[in-house]
Q: What sequence folds into this?
């Protein structure tokens, strides 16, 4: 890898002292593209397709939008999956599920995670942190999905045969809530544009 | 009021420079007791009784606790209403509802609040801020209640005749979610104590 | 206003029953444009210019980006001010400051706000709610600015002569933290694009 | 372990269907005591003593409280470490630091964590989630500590020799912010009690 192509001027890292560099010769550069691919691959390996999440978004928004298509929901799920904070949350959550599945976590964390202990809370925290990127309304929708567990969320929550999906179900709820909120904001913007145009006529 | 009875040593105020005093002669002292009474009075004046909220807590926890009584739910609602952050949220939210009812807010805020605009979000933000004092699980429960709007929450949400309850319904959801989370944590603590005792026998 | 130009199909409002309509004949339509103009006007009337906020962003990011210009900071402040959730937070916060200034809030809320009571917290909650739209790193930056109160934040915090800026100082910290986080993410994206191009050569 | 001593009535687990049981024969029971001991042990093994954290609390509150003792700060740090949500956050964060140190995380997560990537954010999310249990003022203090990194926070942040403390520094900031907020609320309560007594005389 030719890190020499980076000059020190192309650096950013909050919290580091003046003159600190982010890209440097001894560091393995992680591109956004690599993170995005890894997050989508991790979801797929755990049995979650973008279509499954889009279906939840469709059910959430259908009552409020006539003419809503599944394709528009897919588009919005893909758009939120392009967000760094959400990708990072997915990578961390699924990694912890995998370690728990292989009984590799230290006790008592292993038991807390593989039993999906009701008062654990870190799974909700990580998912809520990602969801907050799309406003308090997305946070509300997340809470609803996390309780009701529709479709793919319920399916992974009840997975058997040694599967641990303690973090995964919350992550899916987070992605669906984000996409749903994004869709609502975009549709509103479109409405206003159309309204402005029809006034001008 | 005898503010002289306070010495400068009894002061605290984060963010102020060294030597700053909170209690001082020119300031009207606000006691916690006064704030607590005001918050409960505000709720009552808007038609919300502690019993109404306890009922929601009961419905939420009943499936998981045999022997749960309404009295225990009332006790937990009262306990969370003793929290400063929640009291402050109640005072601010209900004040804004009242101003909106009297058409005293400036435009476009007046329209955003009195129409309970779907993408407004500040009502959820204030309620979520108070709810976060009881962990991410309370935040999840809040989201659920805010969508489903059971009992008193739905009742105030649909209030007619010029009533504006844009903030109130979220505040009730917040109180119920807090109390529900507090109850769950306490019951767990009790279980553990009883378990420890029965082991000792 | 010709609300007839809206069909019922162009509606969205989360939490309302199926068939509910947002735009309707008896409602005064609030456009995003009107909200955006109102938020900027409110800031200006309270003595806060976009340039003042951009200066804080510049100071925050300067250590990590060589060649950072003030113009780029202004651009990012303007971009975050186009976000609905932040505009709504600004309108609510400044409205409460104004009511407090005119002694129009009911007690004990009036005293809590006009004394900028250290444990009040609703001002931070509203500002943090808006900041969360830009990730946990923005929330961290907000906390820092809220304590250190550089430049315009400190200036409004110490305003005298009956001025109440209890909410305003937190709102400015929120806008600056948002813009700073947005800038950091954009610069990273640019770095990656340039890196990808230089690899291809 | 004699799980028979638990009856099905002593169960609680939010989100599970009616009749679900938390304690059951095939599950390894995790007591609060075990979790608390594990969290404190994990901190100690990473070189963090309660005294180190109490020192930060002391520095934060000293300007506002005359007569503040180190012992009172220690007491408040211990009290917040008794909170389940914070213990769980500590266990998860330190586990991830350890895996990163042993190069056991999958790529690209391994690189994101062991380089303490500036825009990662999950470390702040987990720490902020725990901090939110003590109100928005604690969240503000957390942000400040996370930027300024005083004393033990800076020490672990700059640890060398293959050490990874990406999550640990944020966790310490969270504990200190929680304890500081708890202390402020308690001191206020005490002030009010003393004031009430001196009025009665």
A:
């Amino acid at each position: 890898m030719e890190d020499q192509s980076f000059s020190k001027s192309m650096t950013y890292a909050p919290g580091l002292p003046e003159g600190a560099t982010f890209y440097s010769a001894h560091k393995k550069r992680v591109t956004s593209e690599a993170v995005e691919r890894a997050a989508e691959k991790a979801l797929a390996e755990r049995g979650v397709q973008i279509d499954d999440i889009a279906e939840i978004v469709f059910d959430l928004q259908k009552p409020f939008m006539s003419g809503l298509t599944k394709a528009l929901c897919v588009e919005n799920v893909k758009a939120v999956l392009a967000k760094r904070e959400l990708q990072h949350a997915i990578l961390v959550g699924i990694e912890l599920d995998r370690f728990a599945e292989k009984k590799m976590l230290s006790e008592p964390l292993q038991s807390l995670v593989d039993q999906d202990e009701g008062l654990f809370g870190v799974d909700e925290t990580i998912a809520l942190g990602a969801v907050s990127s799309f406003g308090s309304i997305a946070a509300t929708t997340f809470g609803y999905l996390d309780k009701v567990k529709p479709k793919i969320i319920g399916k992974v929550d009840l997975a058997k045969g040694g599967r641990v999906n303690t973090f995964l179900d919350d992550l899916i709820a987070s992605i669906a809530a984000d996409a749903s909120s994004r869709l609502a904001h975009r549709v509103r913007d479109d409405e206003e544009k159309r309204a402005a145009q029809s006034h001008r006529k």
